[in-house]
Design goal:
Strand content: 15-25%
Radius of gyration: 28 Å
Helix content: 25-40%
Shape: globular
Oligomer: single chain
Structural class: alpha+beta
Length: about 675
Amino acid sequence: KYNKARSASLYDKPISKLQLSALDPFSFDFFARKMKERESQYVSYEQLKIFIVTWNMNGRLCDESMQSWLSYIEPIDIYVVGLQEFDLSYEAFIREDTNRSEIWRQKLIQEIKIIDPSFVEIASKQLVGIFICVLAKQNLTSYICDVSTDRIGAGIMGKGNKGGVAVRFKYYQTSICFINSHLAAKLTNVTRRNQDFHKIYSKLEFLCADGISRSVADHDIIFWLGDLNYRINFDNSTTKNLIQQGKLKELLQRDQLIEEMKLKNTFNGFVESEITFIPTFKYDPGTNTFDTSEKQRIPAWCDRILFKGANIEQLLYKSAHEMLSSDHKPVYAAFKIPAAKPIKEKIEQLQQDIIKELDNMASLSMPDCHISPSNFDFGRIYYRTQYTKDLVIKNVGQVVTKFSFICKHGETQICKPWISIWPLWDTLQPNEIGHIKISILIDDNLAAKFNMGTEILEDTIILHFDQGKDIFISISANYIKTCFACPIEYLVILPAPIRSCPHNFKPLNPPLQIPREIWVLVDFIFARGMAESGLFVEAGFVQELVSIREALDTGQQIRNSSISALSVAESLIRLLNSFPDSVVPISFYQKCLLCSSTLFAKQIIASLPLINEKVFVYILSFLNEIGKYSNYNGLVTEKIVNIFADVLLRTPKNIPKTDFDQPRKMQFLAFCLKLIAQN
């Protein structure tokens, strides 16, 4: 997969499929590499004009014309429109897509077709109130291929009304990706905004036509637009005075996004053109007056458009201050990008030349390579943390060397499931040095056996050289146990926090009523977080999540610490979601979907294994108390059951999901909560 992913865009059709299919993986990689090296011999570049818009709609529909600024520069080849908060309804939060997206699609298509009727939609994507739509001229669609979309929420478990949606495609041989995002709000949430960016950038994934999943980073050109929510580090009075005086450069010196990019904390490698328009947030809707409400929010350039890639020319960067519908103003930009166009008549001869080179290589002598190191000891490793080391291979011989990792005798896997190797095969030119990434990761699917000491981290992998020798490389590590991903029934018999228990500990008898780790997290929220806005919706802070897990594993206190209740809430969901089986075991799944009354729910609860029943009732009682603070935390019953349905009752992996599963799970949980409230 590595070689095909790397080379998929490096050749075109003239060479026959039969010839390509006859190539072994090493020859295929050599072929692709040579095509890339000689790309200038068979491609030309044509310019593509792209117009990009970002607009936070504050939940409002727009009846204003967009013509004055959508047609600001012509002709345009591709339009990209990104909206945020175009739907703030509860339905949008629950379903993550709504009919309002169709209303907006039709409006955008109508507005753009007034400019040029030949435009057609390429793709669109929605996540709650975040929406992106890409349109292109009809005559370009023949050259647009491999269209794919994805979305990722920035909240807990990839949910929430913050996050990103994306569309990617190839235009001829140039891969282009557009991301529309809405990052964390509030003046002081700079770290969370940075965290949201990194999560969206790393988690978006596109399944492409060749069957390979590609990340954002795998594209030639990237455009990032949206309500990024970075603010200005001045007080309200100073900010407004500088705006009135036209001293935007002085204001921009205190712009959080610019400051964070200089510190390389976010948007590394991205570029933003100079801002020459006044802040686009926050206005009294229907006016050009900055916020006069009780909150008196400080004006800011929340709405931005950035880009990444070679030879991109920005033609304009403006805001449409005449638009009055929202408390944000639209921001728009136009770009000219180079698109690689293959010259088909030049490709076939080059491909045949490379095939001849491969034929000549076949008669050459034995390979000779040096590798280092010959074994890997990763030392202490922690749950859900990836560790990577380099295996360095140098070709010191006179011929091209082909290598691969192969299975041990009698086995069907190259390595144990906690190890990943990238690439699994490659070719090296004489004197070329190759770097192989050896990574290890203990995830939820693997952690239980290591936590309980039934398996150790040791393995041997075999590096094979074509027409040469095999080299055996040992891999080992020392896994640090955690309560996460342990079975519930194991946690309740631990006499102490898991890190303090010896391998041959004496199980508690009788066992605990509930795992102590669940009690610690719930106790913290009871004491300090019941009224916290964003509880169980907004993501916690990465470093705090690590600290909380460490405290649970070692018995350290967290109640009197400065840790955020949002981080503790996310830790609780992560802990519950990490159990090998859900709190309501998957064997009860179908029965729960059929639940139609509180009486039926009561019968199901009573039939659960005793420890599962106790934990389930404890969590339900806690959620019932949380709901009493809904005026503060926003957690009405419907939102609670939507968040916890997947956590407490997981869908079995062998059962395909249907559109009815989530509503039925929510209904079951709602009956259970009603039962608790009655008692």
